[in-house]
Amino acid sequence: MKQIHLLGIPFDGKSSYAGGPRLAPARIREEMQSSAYNVYSENMRPVLDDASLHICDDLVLTDYEDILAALKKSVSAEHPFLFLGGDHSITYPIVETLNALHGPFHILHFDAHCDLYDEFEGDRFSHACPFARIMENDLASSLTQVGIRTMTPHQLEQSEKYGVEVYEMKDIAHFDPRSLDGPIYISFDLDVIDPAFAPGISHREPGGLGLRTIIDWLQELDAPVIGADIVEYNPLRDVDGITAGVCYKLVKEMLDVLSRAPEALLREKSL
Ligand code: MN
Ligand code: MN
Question: Where are the alpha helices (DSSP H) in the chain?
Fold first, then answer.
């Protein structure tokens, strides 16, 4: 089995409302090491053992340029990467880096929010803007957003401009993960989950998904996944570590998805 690299980016300098996601990578790793759990995914892959998972040192950084430069040094095409944020602004430099390494890929984005603002409170690099930057710079072949429940007229206009496929919560029954083409990058904002299950986030938007539905979708994905991020966990807003436990479970199932990416796909593009 190929080794997945786990890379924390404890950066929340672009959060518009509440700080705290910078504390997430360390808290999630602590949870992953808890003796309450075993190392296997539901498909019985030993995703958390040392042979399967390499834990990289965190990238401690201060802005977009910095993050981009550090990622270009740290990320290689031979291993699938799972990135732990941090706020959602980190996805723009991550996608830019992976695009240079792998060529074009599709993005599957789970979120309560579109994050398609052209600018937010005067900042084009805000955590409310990463997918506007990604699409205007042609860094993804397509963008599919799932779980949205905060649409605005401006963001609807943006999603039409960039040809985004949006599955809002009110239409969620139409989403079928088996219809997606690969290769895929998954960007997972924890606030897509209903805050009743994952309260440790900055923007609690009720009416979201249960983790079981998401795990079922991850297990149904046919297309190869070359990388993923889990962002916006805010330990300062967590309740009794409930959200840390959700992150641990999500990390395991995401590692299982990444371990299914064919080796050839990674090597082929690494030249
Ligand atoms: Mn969000
Ligand atoms: Mn987001």
Answer: 24-32, 64-74, 91-102, 130-136, 153-161, 211-220, 242-259, 263-268
